[in-house]
Amino acid sequence: MIKLHGFSSSNYYNVPKLALLEKGVEFEEVLSYTGVGAKYKPEYLDKSPLGKVPALETPEGFISESRAILEYIEAMYPSEPLLPTSPFGRAKVQELAQFIELYFELAARRMIPNLLSGTQPSPSVLKEFDTNIHKATAALAKLSSFQSFAYGDTFSLADVAAILNLPVVRDVGKRFLDEDPLSAVPGLDEYCAQMEERPHVKTIRADAKADSPGFMAHLKALYGI
User: Fold this and answer.
1) Which terminus of the chain, N or C, has less C-beta within 10 A?
2) In what order do the strands lie in the sheet with 2-6?
3) Can you tell me whether residue 119 is helix, strand or coil?
4) Residue 92 · residue 157 · CB < 8 Å
5) Is residue 135 domain-shared with residue 168, that is, in the same domain?
6) Which of 63, 81, 99 represents a domain boundary (last residue)?
7) What average pLDDT does this structure show over 113-130?
8) How far is CA 106 from the centre of its chain?
């Protein structure tokens, strides 16, 4: 059985986790918080060279980085595909997923430590986020109308990226900009509400909530947050 190493408070970890759940693949979860080094689980570097989550343990060895893990999962377990059959459709799903990761999740990620610690980001970082996120929001509407799914008429990796990454952007926007920058995208609010009703998304949310105390205790012990 394959094993997914990481922790449920991480959206990076939850990307392959949700894909595995949606595909009906049997897997084992292995709790591994980040923060490798001489004083904290240096052996995890053998699973993920930079000590990040997730890492997937397979019979042939370890794979790190969510995108590579998703590619392995899709090729190894072709039933319940999360990519369209046509080359164009596959490319469009990957385009949308990568767009969300690069221009939304990464833009917000710089301020997650501020969210966790209750501190204010620097004015320059906040200004950059404000500019970039509104630019990306306008462009997102050109890639998806967010009807039943992010792309096409079935659940795909674009939906995995959207439902796991966009809520982080909402949280950052509401906390530091006093607005939800994503509410301007037509259909997105209704789409997100619909996605939250999916059973496996509910599992992801419940597991993240259950993991939160352990993750926060880890951050306090390791970084003083």
Assistant:
1) N
2) 27-31, 2-6, 55-58, 61-64
3) coil
4) no
5) yes
6) 81
7) 92
8) 10
| Range of weakest confidence among 4-8, 107-111, 162-166 | 107-111
d(CA 173, CA 180): 5
Largest CA distance in the chain: 49
CA 77 to chain CA mean position, Å: 21
For residue 218, what pLDDT is reported? 87
Task: Return the number of other C-beta atoms located less than 10 Å from residue 50's C-beta.
Answer: 10
Provide the 10 A C-beta neighbour count for residue 51. Answer: 18
User: Of the given ranges (19-33, 102-116, 188-202), which has the lowest mean pLDDT?
Assistant: 102-116
Instruction: Please give the Cα distance from 161 to 163 (Å, whole number).
Output: 6
Helix (H, G, I), strand (E, B) or coil at 111: coil
Q: Which residues of 68-93 are buried (b: 16+ CB within 10 A; e: fewer)?
A: ebbebbbeebeeeebbbeeeeebebb
Identify the domain containing residue 162 by its residue range. Answer: 87-186
- The total number of structural domains in the chain stands at 2
Asked whether residue 35 is assigned to any structural domain, the reply reads yes
Pair (20, 92) in one structural domain: no
Give the DSSP H/E element, type plus range, for residue 156: none
Which token pair is 134?
A: 């509104």
57 three-state secondary structure: strand
> Count of CB atoms within 10 A of residue 176's CB?
18
Partners of 56 in the beta sheet?
Answer: 4, 63
3-state DSSP helix/strand/coil % of the chain, to nearest 5: 60, 10, 30
Element (H, E) at 143: none
Contacts for 130 with CB less than 8 Å, ≥ 6 apart: 177
